[in-house]
């Protein structure tokens, strides 16, 4: 569990996060949603220690990131997997080389052990057979899978993904979401995902934190979002007439995300 308490972050005289408090739960897909420019990336970078808020606490299962020594931060980093915008793979390394990289850097494993662990992760994201390919030789969705394999190679307790679906078509996006969701539940990871993709919100939003212009405006799950009284959230989520109609329909008839997920699985029998 990660608890964010009263975090404020400014750049020079411009405040980007105002007294933000929220909780990200273990074994759940926690989503940070909001308009472009609302502060999602700044919040995520603060969570992983790439930016330093001037106020507040960030507790990783009780351990406050903002009062840690650099040695303690280094230790914590080993428990963190990251998937940043774009897949950020090394172009000159194969898929296998990319996934082995953190193992080479941060463990005492022998090369054979690194290879075994990397292949396990590559198989887990359904990329077996592509391990010797270079990033330029595989599709965007496969690159994303490779980046996920690399992010979970150290068996992280915490997984951070900034807009994991950017640049992917809707169907591939859903498959990536489902992979992240499956991995989260299978390995009991505290997963935090930045997104402005409504399919993700309604597909895997178990705990949703809505950031509006740097303020934490709302928290809830994908069902509660339909009954929100927050005008800003309503405007963000149900931006189009079509989504407004979907909302009216669901409020009247109830929400059947599980049915949708099941139908989707039937469409993809080859899914992990
Ligand atoms: N290093 C920085 N210096 C100054 N302003 C920044 C910096 N990084 C982000 N910002 C500003 O913080 C705000 C939130 O940005 P960001 O977190 O990237 O939004 P989001 O990820 O929700 O699209 C924006 O107004 C952005 O210009
Ligand atoms: Mg961003």
In words, what does this structure look like?
- The structure is a single chain.
- The protein has helices at residues 40-47, 70-77, 95-106, 111-124, 140-151, 170-187, 198-204, 231-237, 241-253, 257-267, and strands spanning 2-11, 14-24, 29-33, 55-60, 63-64, 80-83, 158-162, 190-195, 207-212, 215-220.
- It is of the alpha/beta class and 272 residues long.
- The radius of gyration is 19 Å and the shape is globular.
- Strands 6-7-8-3-9-10 form a 6-stranded mixed sheet, sandwiched between helices.
- It folds into 2 domains: 2-79 and 157-267, 3-Layer(aba) Sandwich (Rossmann fold), CATH 3.40.50; 92-155, no CATH class.
- Helix 6 runs parallel beside helix 7 (198-204).
- Helix 6 links the parallel strand 7 (158-162) and strand 8 (190-195).
- Helix content is 40%, strand content 22%.
- The model is unreliable at 262-272 (pLDDT under 50).
- Magnesium ion is lined by residues 40-41, 162-163, 194.
């Amino acid at each position: 569990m990660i608890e964010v308490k009263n975090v404020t972050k400014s750049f020079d005289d411009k405040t980007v996060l105002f007294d933000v408090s929220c909780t990200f739960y273990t074994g759940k897909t926690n989503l940070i949603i909001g308009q472009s420019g609302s502060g999602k990336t700044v919040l995520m970078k603060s969570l992983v220690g790439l930016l330093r808020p001037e106020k507040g606490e960030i507790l990783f299962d009780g351990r406050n990131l903002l009062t840690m020594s650099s040695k303690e931060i280094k230790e914590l980093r080993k428990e963190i997997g990251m998937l940043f915008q774009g897949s950020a793979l090394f172009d000159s390394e194969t898929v296998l080389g990319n996934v082995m990289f953190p193992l080479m850097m941060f463990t005492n494993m022998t090369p054979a052990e690194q290879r075994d662990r990397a292949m396990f992760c590559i198989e887990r994201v359904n990329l077996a057979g592509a391990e010797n390919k270079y990033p330029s030789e595989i599709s965007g969705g496969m690159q994303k899978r490779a980046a996920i394999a690399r992010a979970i190679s150290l068996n992280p307790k915490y997984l951070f993904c900034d807009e994991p679906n950017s640049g992917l078509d809707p169907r591939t996006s859903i498959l990536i979401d489902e992979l992240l969701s499956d991995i989260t539940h299978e390995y009991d990871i505290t997963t935090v995902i930045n997104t402005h993709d409504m399919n993700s919100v309604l597909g895997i939003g178990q705990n949703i934190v809505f950031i509006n212009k740097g303020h934490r405006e709302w928290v809830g799950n994908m069902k509660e979002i339909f009954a929100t009284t927050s005008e800003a959230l309503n405007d963000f989520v149900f931006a189009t007439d079509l989504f407004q109609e979907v909302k009216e329909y669901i409020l009247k008839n109830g929400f059947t995300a599980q049915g949708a997920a099941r139908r989707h699985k039937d469409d993809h029998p080859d899914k992990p």
